[in-house]
């Protein structure tokens, strides 16, 4: 639904490194690899299977325009649609900048998840910062339409089962658990311009938001009173040491380009793709054929060079895939290799090493004969 400002987005997928902007990104878009609409800082292939159907610690974020129902009577259908659309676009922009995954839009409300699919140790803090920025940014939006707009936000941290529901479409990826219900209930108890934060979300970052007040709430669906912290939106509540305010210049990785081309359609579940296997097979057998039938041909040397480059690219792809598994950006379970992955890895490794051996033999033989 929303188009996020490109100046605030990562130039590369923050999981696998695939280029998402610039001239080279056109190559990936032609085969369907582009920014995920749910989290534009990762590519579509990485957003499909990360943490699929698993239990994960997340922070859930609900935001809703306050008292907007009353305003619709004065605005009319067309004007209401225009305001809601602008609000959701602005909210998406702010949330994505802080690392959120947009779960769904519900009328004039937005639900987002933090810590999936990209892991952040400070995911609760990011949600609180997004909420405070959303409140201050909404003032500018209200001025644009000549309206007094405010947002109420509920934030909760806990464990939920994340995955797709009802279909195999990645658009149906969502979270199920008490933490989702808690965030929704907290949002319902938050007043206009207020942020209600669960005790789990607030505990680790209380020093950064000392103005929040503690209270006990009776929430529907919860037997016991819930401790929450009420934070009133201000012009600027961001801590002075907020690292998100520091722009980071990204460096385009040649290795990410190589991996983006040779990696599988789903980079997370299977990191070595069929193209890498084809490269290995064609390089080895093509080189063998060239040596047998083109012994004195002028294209002999170019073939040696091309097959060597293909073998180097494949070995780099193997190394890059291992590097992705070892990084903490994704869940631990993704470090485990499937049987298919192991077979592909061994085949690509064997063909690449065999190619190097044949090329080395040809070079030595050529030197000895001359």
Summarize the structure.
With 370 residues, the chain is an alpha+beta fold.
Approximate strand percentage: 15-25%
Query: What is the fold-level CATH name, i.e. the topology of the largest domain?
Result: Alpha-Beta Plaits
Shape: elongated
CATH domain class of the largest domain: Alpha Beta
Question: How many beta-strand elements?
Answer: 8
Strand count, sense and barrel status of the largest sheet are: 8 strands, mixed
What is the count of helical runs?
Answer: 10
Determine the fraction of residues in helical runs and give it as a percent range. Answer: 40-55%
Please give the alpha-carbon distance between the first and last residues. 67 Å
Number of domains: 2
Tell me the structural class: alpha+beta
Order of helices and strands: HHEHEEHEEHEHEEHHHH
Query: Nearest-angstrom radius of gyration?
Result: 26 Å
Low-pLDDT runs of 5+ residues are 235-250, 264-277
* Mean pLDDT across every amino acid position: 75
CATH architect. name of the largest domain? 2-Layer Sandwich
